[in-house]
Fold each of these.
Amino acid sequence: MNPTTLAALAAFPSQLEAHYAAIPHAFRHWAPPSWEGVPSEAFTAIEQLCHVRDIEVEGYHVRFRRTLEESHPTLASIDSEPLAIARAYGMADAEKVLAEFRIARARTMDIVSNLTDVQLARTAVFEGYGPLTMRSLVHYLCSHDQQHLAGLQWLAGKIDASKAAVAA
């Protein structure tokens, strides 16, 4: 697997924590009046954390296992909004979520760091993405990580803009 991708995956828990910490405490549950232009799902800062944790475990861990164990499986996409509502993401404890995510990402790193070329070439079909390989799936996870860092930065920008609008 590409070492740059593996390094980005390994660094993500610390980056996620730092980006979340940069959101002012009073705004961690804040939602902008419009989500137009958001580079990730339309989730508040705390909801972003919960989403990343759940997609890691219930999305990517399952997808990795199925791609490695089954012959050309169809991998489900997860509808995140109903999950966020059902699990009350907005009420979550950020420290607990980040700790759970760190454990989940360590498991991910155990899986993806030791894949052989044959395993990386295994194929599946991912709903919404189409045909892929195990290597593709690892890249998509890395891309998902980056989308959520961008989502937190986007929220930080909207928070700052909302403060400027009040001052004007």
Amino acid sequence: MMESNADSSSEQPVFAAELFPHRSLGRRGFRVLLILSGAICFLYGMFFVATGAWPIGFFFGLDFALLYGAFWLSYRSGRVREEVTVSRTGVSVRKFAPSGRMVEHHFNPFWARFLVRRHQEIGILSMQIFGEGRRTEIGSFLNPDDRESFAKAFKGALATVKQRI
């Protein structure tokens, strides 16, 4: 069965965004940091082992392992992302976990409500889409400026879709 042009045009997204957390240190900077800190830990660790204070050398190795582990966890959590689309027929939120698992939430755009919790000094604390007895939080990992721009754009897209009855 063929779709008419009216049906296919209503499926075109009015708004589409991919949200992901910001990482201030790129992969290259991460490698440089690890090489420098590894060299420093190794040199000082060997100095203390050579002077007979071997437990201190062990702790330099432990420090380096903990630093590497912390950055590994940080970059793993940076793989989380959300895809948000708004069309005339639906609001879709696809959440991808660092493990790759995906959860999808669908809302009717005419029943969907966008709730933004604000603090006077901090700005947006949380953003949620809810409707028809379901709710999901979006953009929890975004920085305050990105939350503001996303909220403004998403609210405008939702209003645009609701006006086109």
Amino acid sequence: MMEETPYKLKKEFPSLNNLLLVREYSIAMYPYGDPLEPSINFIVPDHISAHPFIRRLKMLMCRIIAIQNDFASIEKELAIDTEVLNIILVIRHQYKVSIEEACKEAMRIHDEYVNEFVELQQHLPDFGVHQKDMERFVHYMALMISGLEAWYHKGRSTRYKTPGAYPAPEYGRRVL
């Protein structure tokens, strides 16, 4: 998030490449993926976690979810004059195109990432005795992507629609 702050303070759009790199980390999807391993009762060995295939799949997961987040929050962010970190707004600014054209380009980038994720998922390298567990691990990564997408678009939170809104507590009393 520290990488985002200078852009917001200056009301300055990053380049598309800088945005994708910053958002990959700032949206906190790497930590979001960490609980996956204990939830499926398999801890990915360090040497496999460091494998380029797995690192790329994790990067793709983060970027796909960041773009999904940007689509879910575009309505809200159009109303915020300091918002410069949404992929749609960055594309509109960088390429001087309409919101509609920017949405199409953002979706093309999203779909390109999804296609790459699916391609890698279908052609995992041989992880030996861990093969079945790694197939299951990557399958659950894909479920996390689709699960968040459903939450963004089918959930009832005002967080992604109303400027300044935050999620209302789902359980118990609201603490002020």
Amino acid sequence: MVLEAEPDLIVVGEAGDGREAANLARTLRPDVVLMDVRMPVLDGIAATAQIVHEVPDTRVLVLTTFDLDEYAFGALEAGASGFLLKDAQRAELTAAVRAVHRGDIPLSPRITRLLLERLAEQPTPTAVDDPTGTLTDRERDVFLAMGRGLTNTEIAQQLFLSESTVKTHVGRVLAKLGARDRVHAVILAHRLRLVGDGDPLPPLL
């Protein structure tokens, strides 16, 4: 009801379990899927992984109960573009759906910091392909700033660029790296160990 009340949002389907959600996503190919992590038959994490793999143009926004619990982090690892608490207000929900559709990161600076700290705790992968060789020097600077969780405004200030220029660089970085959105750019930067414990993180709000 909340989503259908928005003039620019159209609800094209609803599912009662994760398997049905994955099947509907393949058929309907929606722009955004709003997924509960705790779904019957097939849980939301597994359903998210299926949707991201089989319908790569569809982005998944996950609903969870607690900030970055095992379910939320698992969903991000499975390919979700962000998550939102179930008690989010109407404006937060609709804004998050729009942000995911734009490819933005619908996470607060505090949650972004928790994500970065969690990523820093992960063991170093044995082998990860490094696609950053195609980036220009400026695009690499932007990518590293994204990996530290900086917003476009913060990147612009740090690199002495306009926000519109940063936005252009971000789009090119995502395209060259094959990253769906900023969340996955952050994850890739940490998997490649291009940013880590010694790098500055965004301030807590």
